[in-house]
Amino acid sequence: MQQFQDSGDGAAFRTLFLRHKDPLLAFLLRLSGRNDVAEDVSQQAWLKLLEVARRRGYRASEVASFRTFLFTLARNYYVDKHLRAHQATRVNPLSELHEQTLPAMNQSPEDTAVARQLGSALELALRDLPHEQREVAALWSVGFEIDVIATVVGAPRDSVISRKKYALSKLRHALGRQGIKEA
User: Fold this and answer.
1) How confident is the model at residue 163 (pLDDT cuts 50, 70, 90)?
2) N or C: which terminus of the chain carries fewer CB neighbours within 10 A?
3) More confident position, 5 or 50
4) pLDDT tens readout for residues 91-106
């Protein structure tokens, strides 16, 4: 990012974009539950990033990585424009997310059906989580550590740990009610 900001190196930006676009979109799909919202927020985050670079406002940090910076931009935009504006209604299912995150293997039709069934069950369970818990679960599911999640959501580490614990417990319980047990 620093290279792109300092010299306008398009190749550096392409590298950042290709490295982070899919995890960012997966996080936003889990957070919002809507493909259109996730795509909008992702696009706005990248545009905001270009604006920050143009103003030379990005500062590399030992505390927060570029990825943390980008996900924080996206999360804040989502909260400001969609959550606070009461536009985050669950109209479209999360099926786009499940199709994108299924392994790209040659699965048997039975395995594909089971994966879709599990995805639908998880979609229903995620939908019922409070926003703060869904947000932590979404960040954790794309590989963020607890301390980084705390930075992104602006909450104390202990609160993030608690939100994750409650989210996982509620997900286990909801999936168990649907007949899905832990392996």
Assistant:
1) very high
2) C
3) 50
4) 444 444 444 444 445 5
